[in-house]
Amino acid sequence: MTTPKQTTEPTPSVEALEAQERRLVLPRFTYDDAWALGSLLVEMARERQAPVAIDIHRAGQQLFHAALPGSTPDNDAWIARKRRVVERYGSASYLVGARHRAKGTTFEESSRLDPDTYAAHGGSFPLTVEGVGVIGAVTVSGLPQLADHRLVVEALERFLGERYGA
């Protein structure tokens, strides 16, 4: 019996994560865009048989939500906690956690925020509109935190390329 290969991609640096945010800026973000991005994430997750929940919020309104087989209500709680980090800091939840780790501490120790309300774990990424700023967040929960983050980033890259030729 063969065992699957383990791919150990390096953890991205704070600088690489910040570069992702600078690169993944949208010209606009409509209700139709939310549906298209959410649907793309569902398609990508299904192809990978990823047991995730997916959420898109804009200006405090939930525009998209899907729960795929294997996800649980706990994933929705994680989504809310990670999304609150994006809303508070204007940066990806994984990046916020990475900034704390780079300083030799943790988000939980340093932020003094309730860990039942905020989680600086990977999977929530800011929806940033050119000339406007952060208007919402796209969030995935159900995989290890770096995999959640990478799934969202890959979907945003594909979405920008397919929708806007970026």
From TrEMBL:
InterPro entries: PduO/GlcC-like, PduO/GlcC-like_sf, YBR137W-like. Gene3D superfamilies: Haem-degrading domain. It comes from the Bacteria. Pfam families: HbpS-like (PF03928). NCBIfam families: PRK02487.1-5. Belongs to the UPF0303 family. This is UPF0303 protein FHX78_114272. It comes from Streptomyces capillispiralis.
